[in-house]
Amino acid sequence: MKILPLKITDYDRVYALWQTEHMGLNNVADTRDGIEKFLRRNPNTSFVAELDGDIVGAILCGNDGRSGYIYHACVSREHQNKKIGTRLVAKVFEALKAEEISDVTLAVYSDNEDGKRFWERMGFRARDFLTYRNKALVELEWYD
User: Fold this and answer.
1) Of 53, 72, 93, 122, whose CB has the highest number of CB atoms within 10 Å?
2) What pLDDT digit, counting tens, does each position of 81-113 carry?
3) CATH domain 2-143 topology
4) What pTM value is reported for the model?
5) Domain coordinates of the chain in residue numbers?
6) What's the whole-number mean pLDDT along residues 107-125?
7) DSSP bridge partners of 69
8) What are the distances in angstroms from CA 140 to CA 27, 28, 70, 143?
9) Where in the chain does DSSP place strands (E)?
């Protein structure tokens, strides 16, 4: 298995992988144009896991110059529990450190027990004293 930079040419295969619950996709940011824009701003911090020519995992991460943010992370169901997610996260940590980013944040759906356990193993801690909020500046449709 190889961990490679996520490129816009991977979009169709990665988007197909993201078609699972708890991804939090939307009709603006997660389109080909949206991901292409994201990758132009963050060319070094998103990766795919490739096995025998197939993309079996992907992680979308960026930063604002201060903090890193993991937006989407997914490993195909049949390839889970093989340390692929762990390797993708390690690569993200390495890339963020290279850009002198000191912390990374993510959101996990409250009913995603597998996801919460995975991120706890990766060293992420719940910040129960915070409430996550967002405001759409354009009309968004969320897919989950």
Assistant:
1) 72
2) 999 999 999 999 999 999 999 999 999 998 999
3) Aminopeptidase (3.40.630)
4) 0.92
5) 2-143
6) 94
7) 62, 105
8) 6, 7, 20, 10
9) 2-5, 25-26, 47-51, 54-63, 68-75, 104-106, 142-143
